[in-house]
Amino acid sequence: MSKQIKTSKFKDNLKARSEEAKTVRKIVTIIIMTLLIILVIGGASGYLYVKSALEPVHPDSKEEIKVTIPIGSSSSNIANILEDNGVIKNALIFRFYLKFNNESSFQAGDYVFTPDMELSEIVDSLKSGKLLAEPVYTVTIPEGKTIEELAEIYAEQLPFSKKEFLEKVNDPDYIQTLMERYPSVLLEDILNPEIRSPLEGYLFAATYEFFEEEPSVEAVVDEMLKKTESVLSDYLDVINEQNYTVHEAITFASVIEKETGAKDQRKKIAGVFANRLEKGMKLQTDPTVLYAQGEHKDRVLYEDLEIESPYNTYYIEGLPVGPIGNFSETALEAALHPEESKNLYFLHDKDGNIYYAETLEQHNKNKQKHIN
């Protein structure tokens, strides 16, 4: 074999090995990248899985679930019983939760749980032997109530006074602790010194059950803020998309809530307000005047419209400085999804009918026809 042929063969072999090495490197790179992707996805999935398992089964459900914990049950037995009955999402995660928090000494008995209970509440019940068969108090908070009205409702049914409730919800130190506990709901906006009460509008209208003989104001407020947080969590992305802050969205919803009890009209009314805001017109809505005055009146007079208050939308431009009462989910929906129209005015007649107008001229005609 000639030297030239040997050289050529050597080069061919070298080239082949070089190509083979490149192929091996590519395969190794692909394998490593694939493994990294699997690890990242697996880690994220694992985090979300555990996070979900630590949350209530159904945050809005008050369905009673009767559970019997036999004498001598281990933590594993209890976890399996709770999972089988739909009280918790995952028995294994629940057992890790117990170990991590060093929880034990559970009591046997017949319990009644609800799917909206936090793991901490379930554990407390099992440790104390508190059988949640029936709530001691059931309190319904209607929509559109101010924090003063809300305090009156609780004072009539629970063992604390209106004064005690209002002092607690207006205590700056307490508000700070709540802001730390509910950072997605309670933001710096509520600390505006012009706001009458920092939690005004943030305590959601719903029916609440309390299982203690003497629930504290803190326990009541905590239940209400949990509900507010639960409702708002589904709307945070939309609120951001609409360029509102949470405070502005709640304020807008509270105005719509107070303006009409007709749920089918709320999006249309929200559309009028949105049009006025866009054009730089004052909202000029009577419920804000009444809130600014701090008293209930059957009819707003012209002299009332002149009150100089950051809540009075005849006096200020834009939304009030804060909510004027609590809101319902339909009012929040309307605030975030107003009906499109060219209407800039509306009015109610004595029977509750609502008449809309695109121009002031048409609005005045509606006044003459339906009001005067």
UniProtKB/TrEMBL annotation:
Gene Ontology molecular functions: lytic endotransglycosylase activity
Classification via InterPro entries: MLTG-like (IPR003770)
Entry's EC annotation: 4.2.2.29
Record site feature (Important for catalytic activity), residues: 259
GO terms for cellular component: plasma membrane
GO biological process: cell wall organization; peptidoglycan biosynthetic process
Location of the protein in the cell: Cell membrane
Enzyme class, broadest EC rank: lyase
One Pfam entry name: YceG
Catalytic activity of the protein: a peptidoglycan chain = a peptidoglycan chain with N-acetyl-1,6-anhydromuramyl-[peptide] at the reducing end + a peptidoglycan chain with N-acetylglucosamine at the non-reducing end
Alphabetized CDD domains for the sequence: MltG_like
Topology relative to the membrane: Single-pass membrane protein
Function comment: Functions as a peptidoglycan terminase that cleaves nascent peptidoglycan strands endolytically to terminate their elongation.
NCBIfam families from the UniProt entry: endolytic transglycosylase MltG (TIGR00247)
Family: Belongs to the transglycosylase MltG family.
Name under which the protein is recorded: Endolytic murein transglycosylase
Protein species of origin: Virgibacillus chiguensis
